[in-house]
Amino acid sequence: QVQLAESGGGLVQVGDFLRLSCAASGRSLLRYGVGWFRQAPGKEREFVAGISWSGATTDYADSAQGRFTISRDIAKNTVYLQMNSLKPEDTAVYYCAATRPMGKEYAYWGRGTQVTVSS
User: Fold this and answer.
1) Dist CA 5 CA 23 (whole Å)
2) Contact present, 42 and 109 (Cβ < 8 Å)
3) With bands split at pLDDT 50, 70 and 90, how would you rate the model's confidence at 103?
4) CA 69 to CA 17: how far, in whole Å?
5) String of b and e for 94-111 (b: at least 16 CB within 10 Å)?
């Protein structure tokens, strides 16, 4: 099965940018859809962005549309989340998750990386 490890979180100011990485091991991501989720204190985990197993399709939450970009580098077995124009409400623990091969349900999860946007 695939193992996922997030990195790239940190403390930034309003309007700054960050690029999160989700490095996979154990399997190639070539047949896995990958999504980014986040969970803020006291709130439920929510979907942020996703890329299909083929890489042909991306999807974004309304809160991420226009500011965040999901991409993948198969050669590096890594999926990225470029986050621009960060806002305090983007503060959360960000998780990446992978579907089963060529599936849609997220079955594998990383441990998360903290993003804090200070005003």
Assistant:
1) 5
2) no
3) confident
4) 11
5) bbbbbbbeeeeebebbbe
